[in-house]
Amino acid sequence: MSTILNRILDVKRTELADLANLKFEEHSPRKKRSFIEKIREANEMKIIAEFKRASPSKGDINPNLNPQEQAQSYEQFGADAISVLTDSSFFKGSFADLQAVRSVVDLPILCKDFVIDPIQIDTAYKAGADIVLLIAAAMEKSKLIELYQYANEKNLEVLVEIHDEEDFEKANAANAQLMGINNRNLKTFEVNLAATEQLAPLVLQTGASLISESGIKTVSDVIRVQSAGARGILVGETFMMAPNLQDTFKQLKQPVRTVR
Fold first, then answer.
1. pLDDT at 4 (0 to 100)
2. What's the whole-model pTM score?
3. Is the bond leading into 29 cis (omega within 30 degrees of zero)?
4. Strand 59-60, strand 54-55: pairing
């Protein structure tokens, strides 16, 4: 049965050849911006604020928003990192968006895409990313390990995204230091924060830092995933549609509580 994830990956394979033709402004000498160091020292919930124009589940979210202006607001109001959707076919993003954000902020930037090939990691690096997303459900364990090591060799940090125990086993095999539990099932795009609660004990026992992704809109949502052990959250739609972005950041930036 074809799933949304399968359809995205099918299209992604056809786009790989085009990446070789993209041109980027050089960022040299390259500054080290570590999100992993930030989250390990956290005394408050660390926020990865996402720039996302659209999605397969929601359609257009805020397609005409200026990435530089939004990123500067994210940095001003307390984001600890910025995620930029670079998929064009399903999320209306681009590597140009990532480079635009890189040019105006000094925060770690996550390249959010459906990575299946080293050339995507090369492109993310050239565009100015500090972190790349690897989705465990999108590949076999051996491929995940290969791409994880390739990103590390380029001095990029890696957020490995998981949604179930099979994904976790792949991430653990790669020795992932930063794991993101996606509360959205990428096969159906349904969201349930219980995913974080169910998988958090497995992640925490490895010593990896835990991010909860998707479906986080309120203070109670933050407290819920934090109680499960998350020390960071990735938030996109809530920020992209917020009528008062500063107030929204204040609400979600909760102090870290001890997991019992």
1. 85
2. 0.93
3. yes
4. antiparallel
